Amino acid sequence: MMRVWRWILAIIIGAWLPIVFITWWWNASAESTNPYFPPLSVIWEQFKVNWIFELVPVHVVPSIRNLLVGFLIAAVIAIPAGTLIGASRSGTRYVEPVVDFIRSIPPVALVPIFILLLGLDAQMRITSIAFSASFPILLATIEGVRSTNLVVLDTAKSFRLSRSAILWRVRLPGAMPTVFAGLQVGFQIAFVVTIASEVLGSGFGLGAFTLIATDSFLIVDAWTGVILLGILGYLLNLVFDLVERISLRWYYGQKKLS
Amino acid sequence: MPAIIRRTPAGVISTIVALLIWQFIGSFGPLAGDSFATATEAITALAGLLTDSVFWAAVGQTLHMAILGFIISIAVAVPLGLLIGLSRFSYRSSKFTFDFFKVIPPIVIIPIAILAIGPNITMGVVLVIFANVFAVAIQTAYGVRDTDPVLLETMRCYRFNVIQQVLHARLPSAAPQIAVAIRLAASAALIVAVVAGLVGGAPGLGNLLMRYQSGGQVDKTYAVLLALGIFGILVSRLIVRAQRRIIFWTGR
User: Fold this and answer.
1) Which chain A residue shows the shortest CA-CA distance from B14?
2) Among A residues 25-44, those touching chain B with beta carbons less than 8 Å apart
3) Per-residue H/E/C for chain A
C-alpha cells in the first residue's frame, strides 16, 4: 500500500510542471496572431489529422525502420570488432587514435559524403546511420573489454580457462555495462542522423516532412512534425533504457549489493 | 620489428596506415571515381583552405555560435541546477521535464528555429543553448542532491547558513558531475554549431560543407570534414586539460 502511494505521489510530483507548462502554452497562444506561433489548439487539431494515424505509414514507419536497421548493423559490426581489438593491448593502441579522430567529426557532417557516394535513397540513409552509430559502440566496447577487472582476469587464468572462454565468459560480460553506454550514445546519434539524412536528402520520412512543411510555410504542419519528433525521441530513449535495465539486471543487482 | 617502428608512437603508425588505406580505396576500390576524394586530394584541398579567407570566416562563425551558446548555457544551467538541487521537491518536480528536453536532439527544433529566428548566427546560438541547458542543469542538480548528508548535518549543527553550505559543501561535491556535464556540453556545442549550418542554413563550417557538396567540389568537402575532426579532437583535449586544473581535488 505504501509503495502504491509513493508511486502515485512520484507521478504527481513529476507531472505538475509539464501540465502547468502545456496549460500556459495553450492559453497564452489561444489568441496568437503571430504566424510562426499558431495557437496550440490549432496545432493539436492538425496533429490529430496528420499523425492519428493518417500519415504514420508514409512518414513515420520508414524513418523508424531505417533507424532500427542502421543501428542494428552498427551494433552487429562494432561489438565483435571492438571485442577483438580490446582483447589485444597493441590492437587498442593502434586502432584507438584513428577511431577517435573519425568519431570527432560531427556525425551529421558525414551525411553529405554518403549522399555524394550513394545518392539519396534508403540505402544511403541506412549506411549513414550505421556508419555514424558504429563509432561510439566500437570505442565503448574496446574500453569495456580492455578494462576487465584484473582480479577476475587473474582468477580465470589460474583456473586455466582457455583464451576463448576468458573472452566469452569473463571479458565480454564484464564489458556489457560499458557496451550499453556506447549503444545508448550510438542510438541517439542514429536518431539524429536519421532525421539529417532525410532533411539533406529528400522525399519520405518524418524529418523530410517537417522541413518541407517549413520551406512551404505550412507552419502548423511543421509544428506537428516537431512535436511528434520530440515525443518519438523521448519514447525511443525510454524503450532503450528499459531494454538496458532488463539485459543488465544482474549488474544493477550487484551494484545495489555493494 | 625494426627499431624505427618500435620507437614511433602507435598513433602515428596507425594514422599513416589509415591514410594509405584511404588512398588505396580512393584510387583502386569500387568507390574510386569523381564522388570520392583520395587522402592526398583531401589533404591538398585542406592545405588550400588554410590560406582561404572564406574558410577562416566560416571557422570564426562556427566558433562564435559554439562558444557563445556554450557560455550562455553554462551561465544559465549551473545556477539553475543549484537552485533545483537544493530541495527534494524541486528536484523531483523538474526531473521529468528536464530529462524529456535533454534527450530531444536540437536538430528536431531546427524547423521551428528557422521560422522563428531565421538562418543566422542567433539561430545557431539558440540551438547550442537548447542542446546543453537541460542536461547541464539536471546533472548539476543531481550532483548537488548527492552531497554527503552527514557533512550537511554537521554544517547545520555548526549553524552554517545556506549560502555557506552551498559554497563549501554542495558545490565542491557536485563539481565532478558539473565537470562531466560541461565537458559533454563543449563537444556538443561544436557539433550543434556545425549542424545548425548543415541543416538549418546558419553560416559557418556546416554551411560551407553543404555548399562544397552541392557544388560538386568533392575534395573540399572532404577537406572540411578533416578540419572538423581536428577541431573536435582539439576541443576535447583542451577541455580535459582545463578540467584537471580547475577541479584538481577529484583526482581525475
Assistant:
1) A94
2) 36-37
3) CHHHHHHHHHHHHHHHHHHHHHHHHHHHCCCCCCCCCCCHHHHHHHHHHHHCCCCHHHHHHHHHHHHHHHHHHHHHHHHHHHHHHHHCHHHHHHHHHHHHHHHHCCHHHHHHHHHHHHCCCHHHHHHHHHHHHHHHHHHHHHHHHHCCCHHHHHHHHHCCCCHHHHHHHHHHHHHHHHHHHHHHHHHHHHHHHHHHHHHHCCCCCHHHHHHHHHHCCCHHHHHHHHHHHHHHHHHHHHHHHHHHHHHCHHHHHHHHHC
CB A141 within 8 A of CB A79: yes
Q: Do A109 and B115 touch (CB under 8 A)?
A: no
Contacts of A17 in chain B (CB under 8 A): 93-94, 96-97
Name residues of chain B where pLDDT drops below 50: 252
Task: Give the count of Cβ contacts less than 8 A between chain A and B.
Answer: 151
- Contact between B113 and A32 under an 8 Å Cβ cutoff? The reply is no
The predicted structure's pLDDT at residue B5: 65
- What ipTM describes this predicted complex? 0.87
